[in-house]
Every structure is written in structure tokens, then in C-alpha cells.
């Protein structure tokens, strides 16, 4: 067996390309050996950026698995695949993840597992049947240095007992209409954007904290066509937990300055903010109209390092059989909350849960 | 008639003392001529700080009005009172304001007019019967340089069309139990704290924007005894407006660092934050544990200048018969929203309004 | 005698107007009773802004003193003048200050006492002959809340032993050519701008710290005509003190964003910065090009409160015979250092002092 | 020939280890094939961290070159070395660099080439004889995203014409006495710390800008024993250039909070600051004493990414025969300025240069 983790990437869209390059260039203990995409433009990109480094390109996912999972002979031969990164369209995340698990592979699946809770649950069940394989649904912020610093400080007692959690995911305004087309499959703004914030709330409050109520509102301020998909471009959601805890979320598709994802955790003895003041470079420009600071323009501009850490830690967990730092079940919990927020947005109703977190029938 | 505005202050508690000194020392066009308080400690304070400057002290409100409203003879005599500042306990704001109006005085009443909507409405009605007299319910933030800068920028189109409004009022943790006793009469955290934020939302969205829905949640993280008064020490409230606008609010009684009141107004083309990074002095201390900045410790530390501006502009409006910059009706609207938020907090229910802003019966 | 300090202001130029209004409106224990200016435009301003409040206007300085120093009868009569604020052109500061002192008045003289060291020294000598009168040369920053906070922190040991001091005075670019005309009488950029920073260095290091060496350089980047007056629009000066201390200074006439005066005091155990990040209002504007903060546009925008504190503390010192917080001798010491910096700028030479701070002959 | 750049690292001290790991793990187009160190502790480290990845370890520099420069056969064999990273003690930088150049290798030499100007000049001469080989003296800040952003903005005219340049290098206080021992060979604080700032000044003003004068002062505030080596723990230096430009520098060994290297470039129409407000993580901790931000603790904490960029760009320049972005001559110019600053510090004298930048004899 290789002393490197032999990895393939499925899907070479925006995130797939990044994952491929992270494993190729910035994950010393991994070897990217194969990539799958049926898309001609993505194939062309792969021929230029991956093939010269020995990465084999497949246009059929099943064929890739069949060929690459043959027994390992040496680093330069086909075979010995150990892990799959699933970065295709959300609609096929679940089936491809399940297929890879059943083929004996570790899997790093881009979020979300699915926008459908039942399908996502099936992924979790499948993973549970293969306990020796690592299955990670990547919530990138858990790999971010700043969030980890926040987590360490909270655990050290720096803010007392966390009670209120506020978090936002705000994308730069994209006037192209991209977000309207995207909304058809994204699951809606709470599932697509705030799912990261929800995951963080569960991380800081504890995965097992039962939900008490959920409500959400939203507006379409710049993209009225989002209404066709029951979606909005600005959403505000509130999740009340049993045990005196509240998380509230904001997401937006119309930030003028760039990407601004931030979080505050308020405890009985202090408060932590993460990225309250976003940083592009360390340059300030003092011009006639004042002092100007640029901020990151997109999600990757903010979280690039976190994705690389994720690739490296996933690799290490697979090679050394270490536990992953986030449980797959958590991805499902976040999805459930996101889906109920989206439901509340659409119905206008507040939704209640009993002390075990079981949803109550409508009054 | 005096060319100075002759003013009396009723109540010399925390805010009353400040109003008295602002009119005495920092409002060049006003003369503080009288003060009312029945409280021995406050009387003692007044004898030391006000009496030496010619301010007459009364222990009976009606007696003050009777004596001081006699015809004006000269600056050093009793008589000629033109304006009353009502800064007594909230429970008597309304009746004293009405009494002063009916005695022909201009009135600056501390917020809130009342915690009871009907009583507050009666103040508004009374004021409407005396249109020549100025009646101001002071929302100090409208007099703050920074909020005015924000308002001017929004009106100049700097952020496009405002759609989302977030605002918070966070008090420094006071472990003495003060807030529990205070909660009995305060009307609750949304009426007491967030009423400023609500007033700002109405200022930025327009006073006439009809409400669509209101919901609120809260926790008692440090003062469980607040539950006795149906109150909390951390509250999150969401107000949806017809016309694609949302305001959401946070209030807290447990900020470790000090007072942190901040606002963000998010528009289709930009965003404005007010006091995102609070400033004590302009000193940063670079010590072994990092860079430390101190912040204001209380509301007055943040808004002192705004209170002085309020005193001066109220004085100018009275002397020169200029319109006040904020309508009394707005104070009532803010109170209504605050009360419904508090009601929603207590019932756990979301409350709905029709397109004219009329409350809908529960489903 | 009046229980208010009866004050006159000489000179109603930019600073004179401000001093007049501060004493008129924001100094409760003072009464502005008279003002002197020979300038027709300033007289017109005074007729509008001062005369209605009972301030008598004089076009002759000596006449003002003669009339206003008659015995006090009552608040509304001529006489009883106790203090003079000298805010005329720098060239007459000294003679007017001396005249006022000799007439028995307390004096608050705008900085500098003179640009000529011998003349300034004469003012100090005169003041020493009248020890019951307060004579203050106002270095406004010593009255600033932030600098006082810094001073208190240093004295409490927060940064250990101060060793390095950096301070700058940077004016907003003024393309009108004002600074060229002004340079004829200003004494040069180190005497005009950095004198504040020099005064602060003496405050933080101790007035008695002997100088070891002085050197300065400068450039004319935007106003080449400054060279006519031996001046520059950007200057860098270094003052070495005996006892292991260094102060270095920067001044500029071409800041694009506005006024930026800042200081850092570096000690063996920490560092304090004052106004590293200047604040206009508390508004941040998040627009397409980034986050923009406006800063104060001029010296008064930064230090208005300090000037008012100065007026009030000067008044208190006069009325209650309290010591002033800054010694007149210090103003002279700052002037000496500023003048030697300007000399070094012009000669290009470094200038040395012995361990007692006595200047050494050129090598 | 390998399509990867085959690299060896000489020296595995603090910086050598980092270079080795950067080339091993984070430079996709390079292969680290060998490392040299005579130090037993460093050898032990290499056996653990490098050898398992196929890196051969040598205890003799010449032997390494002899063995590794044999003709290339395949990736896993000895031979085909193309580049050397010199990260040994400063005292042997020059001779090892020359030896490597003469052996036909590209060289990345840690700064400084030497603390002796003549020796450094010899390196430059040698490099000029081998124009096909890349020889880089790494000034890491030129590879930093923020400095590059600043450079791009300056070149785009964002601040008009740069006139004043201020830059500092401040190390965290190290009470162990390390800096005293280090001073024996470091060349002094201006050569060791401010050389980066000097290099930046040349970058922003232009390498060819002739010097007009140099002066420096310094103190020993925490490490009096530095005096033994003619060194200080806090230095202030001023470099005047012909053509109306000034650069001034500060360096310190006693920053309490951590590493703070910052720069400001002041132009006729604006100003740029780089790292005015240093960032550790994006976490702010709001605690009872205020808001606290942690900052990077050492040089590497600030510039890690820049070192990796340097490794990658050096690799690319070697493989693709592209020009390096910084000229070796520049490293020599920076050294000359640093040395003269250090000389001025020691003599207390200001040193002058004619309009061609030639040093003038002492007056």
C-alpha cells in the first residue's frame, strides 16, 4: 500500500477544481491520482492542470471507481485508490457518496449531503455500516484557524457559558442572475448559506442541544425572481434551543463590498467575535474620501486556508485511522435546521419542538 | 419674556441630574430655573449642584408649576417658566407630561412616555390639542452625530434602498441585581432597551411602514429572577414590515466589556454600520496579551453629546418655534412594537398584521 | 467680585472665534464680557455672534484693558475683568500677554508664546514676577481625554519605562497656498506643527529630561514655494535625550484624508498608541470598493472637546487659585526644541548638547 | 532532466527547517532531494522530518554538492541537483552561495548575503559571471500579498508621488538574552531588522534613488549588554534621498504584544499603510477589561505565506528561466544603507552623500 493517500476527485466545477488542486499541490501526504467529470470544459481544464501531473481523467464515475480500486502495485500505476472527494452538483452528492462508500473508499463530500433530509439520512446510515471508512461532510469553517481559536477560547472558559449565537453568511452582490438559477437546486438560502452558521451553532452549543422553536423571514430586495423557487436574497432566522440558548442567523446575496461571513458568541462573562472586521490584505488606503479597506470578494477568498487544512486533516485521518473532528450526523442535524428555517420562511409560521427536539404538530 | 428658555426639570435621578446639568451648563440659550424632586438624597444633591446657580428646588410638582408659571418679570425672579423636562420614574411620565402641557409648557419627556400603550396614546392626544407647544419624547440616538451621519448617507443614496436593519442595545453586566428590581416597572427588555433600536428602524424605514409580523425569543442567562416579571436578560426580536423590509433586534444585560449599542442598515447597494467597533478613548494598549481597547461603560458614556444636542435643539425649537425633528407619534409607534415584541417573548407566539399594519386575530 | 470669571478674548480669527464661543457657551463658570479685534470682518462676526449676549467689542487692545479692568460693580456693567485669552496673530502673542499680565490679568495665550525664543523667554520671566496670576500657554492635547488616559496608564506602569516616543501632526492637504503664506510667520513646520508633539514628549518623558542631540530633514512635495521661507511640507525630526530616551516626530501638510495627529509611547513592557486609527463619526460605509471610514478634517475636528476642557480648567484655576496643570516653562522648552529642529532642517546638520542639555559648539 | 526543480537546503536552523518544509510540502514544482547540516540536533530533526520523504542528509556542504550534482537519471536517484537554498549562519552565507553558484546551481540565499559589504559585493560579482543561474537574496516582504497590493496601488497612482516612507521591524520581547548573543554576528539592529524596511524603501522609491544623508540613534532599554557589540534594542534611523524623498525606520527588540512590522508610504495624494493593525486570528475577545486582539508572535507568524510564495516563485524562475522579481544588487544596496545606519548609530554622526550617492568625507 502507498504511504500516500491515493485520492480521486469527482466533479471539477468551482469547488471541484479547488479540491483537486489542494490535493495535488498542498496536501503532502496525498496523491491525486484520478478525476471524474463528464463536462467538456472541465475535461479541458483537467487536461491542462491535472493530467501533466499524472492524474487520470474519467468521464464516468463508476468506471473511475472500477479502474482505480484495483490492487495497488506502485505509485505510478492504476489502482489502490483509497479516497474520493465528491464535489459534483448537490443533486448527485448522496448517490455518489454512497457508491464510493460501498466501494470501500473514504469520502470527503462537499456540503450539503443532499437538500433532501431523507436522502441525506441514507448517506449517514450507509456510512454507519462502514465504520472503518472515514466519511466527512466538509464544513470548512470548522477547519478555519480563527474559528478554532474561538472554539479554544470558549472551551477555556474565556466567555463563561455561551448563551447567544449570531452568525451570518453574506455573498457579494452578483447582478448576473446566477443566484436565481442556482436557487432551483440549492435548497434555499438557509440550506445553502446559513447551513455553515447552523453547523457552527451546533459546534459551539453542542451537537445534542435540542431545538425549541424555529422561525424565519426574508425579503427579495435585488432578485425578485427568487420567489419562483420559494427563496429570498436576504433571510433572518431564529433558532431557540432548550436550555436557555438562542442562535440567530442572517444571510444575504447582496453585500456590496464582498464576502462577509461573521459570527459572535455571547457568553455570561464575555463575547467572541470572529471576522467582525473582514480583512482583504493588510493594506489601508488613506485617500481623499477617508480610509478604505478592501475585503475578500468571495467565500474562497476568506476560507482558502481552511479548505487546505481540511484536505490535510482528512488525509491524516484516513492514513493514520484517526477520528475525524466532525461527525457526519452533525451535517444531517444542520441540514434539518436549515430545511425547517426554509419551511418557516415559506409558510410564515413559527415551528415548535418538544424538550427532546421532536417537532410538535401545528397548533 | 426672557430671551433664554426658562426650564425646570422634574426628577433628579440618574437621567434627571444629567438633564439638569445639561440645561444649566451646556445649553447657552436656556436657563434652568427650577427643579422638582421629593427624594431627600436628590434634594441634597440639588442643594449642592443647582441651588448655588439660582435654581429653585421644589418637592411638589404641582407647586413648582404654580409658582414658576407666574408672569415673567426679570431673569432673577420667580416666573416665566416655559418648558419642563420630565425625568421622573417611568410610571409618572405620562401624568406629569400632561399636567405640564395643560399648564402651557413645552415638554421634553424622557422615554418611554409610558409602558402602557393607552396611557402613552393619551399623552399624544393631549399634545395634539396644544399644537403651539413642543412636546418631545427624547430618543437620544436621533441626536447623535454618528446616527445623523448614517441618516444623511442613506438619504443621499449611499446604500441604495434599505432593506434589512439590525440594531442592538447591550448594557454592561451589573451583578448587583439592579436589573431584576428595575424589570418590575421597565416594561421589559424590548420596551426598555430595544425601544431605541425600534425608533431607529422607523427612522430609517419611514414612520409609516406597516408591520407584517412580530416575533421574539429570549433567555435568562445571568438573572433568572427576571422571569418573575416575564422578562429576560437577552432578547432577540424580529419585525417584518410590508414592502420587503425586516428589522431585527438584540438586547442584553450581560455585556462584559461595557455598553455596546450598534446598528447596521443594509441596502441594495451598500451597508452602513454605526458603532460596530465601540470607542472609549482613542488609546490602544499594546500589552503582553495583545492589543486592548476599552469601550464606554454605560449609555451615557456613549451618548452624552447626543443628550446635550437634544437639550439645545429642544431649546431652539421652543424659542424660535421651529418644528421638532421627531414626531411624538413616533414614540408611540415604537412603544407599540416594543410591547408586541415583549408579548411575543412571553407567549412564544408570532403575531401577524394586515397590510395596513392592523393586528390580525390569532389563527 | 463676580462669582464667574470675567474673560475677554483678543483676536477673533479662526482660533479666537472658537475661544470666544467656548467661554460664552460651554464654560459655565466664566462670563465672556469683551472681545478685541481690529479686523472689520471679525468685528462683523462679533456683532452677530457675541454682542447679542452682552459681549462688548473693542478695536483697541489697550483700550479694552483700560475700560474692562475698572472695579467690578455688577455682572451687567463694564469692569472687573479677570482674564484675557490671547488669540491674535503669533507675532503679537508675547507683547499682548505681557501687557495683560502687567494689567493684573490671568492669561491664556494660544501657542506659541512667540516664534522667537528670547521674546518667549521674556513672557515667562514676566509671568514669574506675578505668581498670583495664572498664565497658561495652551497645548490643547494635554487637555484631551485620550492623551490623559494615556498619561494615566503610563503613570500606572502599564507600559513599564517609556523609552521611545513617536508623534505626528498631519494637516489635510490645502491646495490653496495658505500654508505658503502662513510659513512666513509660523516659525516653520517644527515650531508650528510638531510643537504639540514636542510638548507631549516632554510631558511623557518629564520636562527636565536633558536633550542629547537634535536632527531634522524635510521635503517640499506639494508646496515648493515653502522653500522661500526655509520651510517644508513634510518634516522628520529626531530628538535624542540623555537617559536612554528618543522622541521622533513627523509633520505633514499634505494628508489626503484629513487631520491625523497620533502618538505612540513605547515602554519596556508595553506600548500605547493614541489615535492610531482616527475616527470621524462612528459610521463605516461598506460600499463596492470596500469599507470606508471618514476622519476629522481639521485640528478642531479632532480636539474641540480638549479646547473646551482647557477653557473650563483655566477658569477653575483662576477662580479657585488652583495650580495649572502645565507649566509655562514647558512651553518655552518645547519652543526651543522646535526651533533647533527647524535650524537643523535648514542647515542639514545634527546639533549636540551636553549632559545638562547645554548646546555644544559645532565640531 | 527532472520536470521538478531538484533542490537542496543548507542549514537546518530556525529558517532552514522552514525552507526545507516549504520546498518539501508546499512547492509543487520542486523536489527537496538533499539537506546539509553539521549540527547533531538538526540532523536528528532531519532524520525524522525529511529522510522519510526521500531527502538525503549530508554533514558536509561540499560533499553534498559533489554527490548531488551528478547527472540526473531518475527522480529517485542521486544527482541532477539544480538549486541550493542557503540558510546557514550569516557568517557563511557568502562563501556557500559562491560555491553553489560556481557548481552551476541556482541559489536562494537567506538575507543578508553578509554583514560585510565587500564580501557581499563579491557574491554579487560572482552571480553576474553566471547570468543563466538565478541568485536570489530573499527579502520575504517583497513576496507578501499585502506589500504587493501596496506596490500595485502605488504604481496605479493611488497616492500620487511617494515622498515619505516609514517602516518598522519590531520583535517580541525575548527576556532570555538571545538577542545579546545574536548581536555578535547579526551586524546590528539596522542590518538585521531594518534591512527589510530599507529594501522596501528602495522598492517603493526605486533602487536607483541616490542617498543624500543618513543618521541614526538608539537606546538600550531592556538589554544593556547589547552595548558590548555596539548595538541597541531600539533604533531610529533616517535616510534622506536626493529628489525630495525621506525614509525613516524604527526597530525594536522589546515589543510586548508580539511581532509588529509595519510600513506607511505617504504620497502627494494619499497614503498607504501596510499592517498598521496587526492581525493574529480574526477573533476579538470582548472581556471585562475591554476588547482584546492577539497579534502574531514572531516574524514567521506574520510572513509564512510570503516565504512559501518565495519558494514557489524561485522554483518557477529556475524551471522556466523567468527573471526574478528582485535584483541581487538591491540586496547589496540595502546592506550598504543598513551598515551606514549602524555606523551612524555608533559614531553619533550624520553621514552625507553627494548627488550621485557617493559618500562625502567628514567635514
From TrEMBL, chains A, B, C, D:
Domain Gfo/Idh/MocA-like oxidoreductase N-terminal: 5-133
InterPro entries: Gfo/Idh/MocA-like_OxRdtase_N (IPR000683), GFO_IDH_MocA-like_dom (IPR055170), NAD(P)-bd_dom_sf (IPR036291)
Domain of life: Eukaryota
Pfam family, any one: GFO_IDH_MocA_C3
Keywords (A to Z) from UniProt: Oxidoreductase
Location of the GFO/IDH/MocA-like oxidoreductase domain: 147-272
Family listed: Belongs to the Gfo/Idh/MocA family.
Name of the protein this chain belongs to: Nad-binding rossmann fold oxidoreductase family protein
Organism: Ophiostoma piceae (strain UAMH 11346) (Sap stain fungus)
Top-level taxonomy: Eukaryota, Fungi, Dikarya, Ascomycota, Pezizomycotina
Amino acid at each position: 500500500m502507498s504511504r500516500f493517500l491515493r485520492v480521486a476527485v469527482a466533479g471539477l466545477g468551482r469547488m471541484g477544481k479547488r479540491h483537486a488542486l489542494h490535493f495535488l499541490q498542498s496536501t503532502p501526504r496525498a496523491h491525486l491520482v484520478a478525476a471524474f467529470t463528464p463536462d467538456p470544459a472541465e475535461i479541458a481544464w483537467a487536461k491542462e492542470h491535472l493530467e501533466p501531473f499524472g492524474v487520470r481523467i474519467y468521464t464516468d464515475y463508476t468506471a473511475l471507481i472500477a479502474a482505480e480500486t484495483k490492487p495497488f502495485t506502485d505509485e505510478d500505476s492504476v489502482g489502490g485508490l483509497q479516497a474520493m472527494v465528491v464535489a459534483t452538483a448537490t443533486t448527485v452528492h448522496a448517490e455518489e457518496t454512497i457508491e464510493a462508500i460501498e466501494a470501500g473508499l473514504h469520502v470527503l463530500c462537499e456540503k450539503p449531503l443532499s437538500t433532501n433530509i431523507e436522502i441525506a439520512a441514507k448517506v449517514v446510515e450507509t456510512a454507519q455500516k462502514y465504520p472503518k471508512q472515514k466519511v466527512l461532510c466538509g464544513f470548512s469553517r470548522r477547519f478555519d484557524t480563527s474559528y478554532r481559536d474561538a472554539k479554544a477560547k470558549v472551551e477555556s472558559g474565556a466567555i463563561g457559558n455561551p448563551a447567544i449565537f449570531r452568525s451570518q453568511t453574506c455573498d457579494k452582490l452578483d447582478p448576473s442572475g446566477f443566484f436565481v438559477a442556482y436557487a432551483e437546486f440549492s435548497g434555499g438560502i438557509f440550506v445553502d448559506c446559513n447551513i455553515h452558521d447552523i453547523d457552527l451553532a451546533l459546534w459551539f452549543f453542542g451537537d445534542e442541544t435540542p431545538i425549541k422553536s424555529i422561525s424565519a423571514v426574508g425579503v427579495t430586495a435585488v432578485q425578485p425572481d427568487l420567489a419562483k423557487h420559494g427563496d429570498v436574497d436576504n433571510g433572518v432566522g431564529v433558532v431557540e434551543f432548550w436550555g436557555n440558548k438562542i442562535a440567530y442567523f442572517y444571510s444575504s446575496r447582496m453585500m456590496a463590498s464582498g464576502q462577509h461571513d461573521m459570527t459572535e458568541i455571547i457568553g455570561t462573562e464575555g463575547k467572541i467575535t470572529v471576522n467582525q472586521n473582514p480583512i482583504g490584505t493588510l493594506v489601508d488606503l488613506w485617500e481623499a474620501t477617508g480610509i478604505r479597506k478592501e475585503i475578500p470578494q468571495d467565500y474562497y477568498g476568506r476560507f482558502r486556508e481552511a479548505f487546505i487544512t481540511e484536505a490535510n486533516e482528512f488525509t491524516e485521518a484516513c492514513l493514520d485511522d484517526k477520528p475525524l473532528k466532525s461527525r457526519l450526523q452533525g451535517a444531517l442535524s444542520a441540514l434539518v435546521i436549515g430545511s425547517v428555517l426554509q419551511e418557516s420562511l415559506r409558510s410564515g409560521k413559527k415551528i415548535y419542538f418538544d424538550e427532546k427536539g421532536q417537532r410538535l404538530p401545528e397548533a
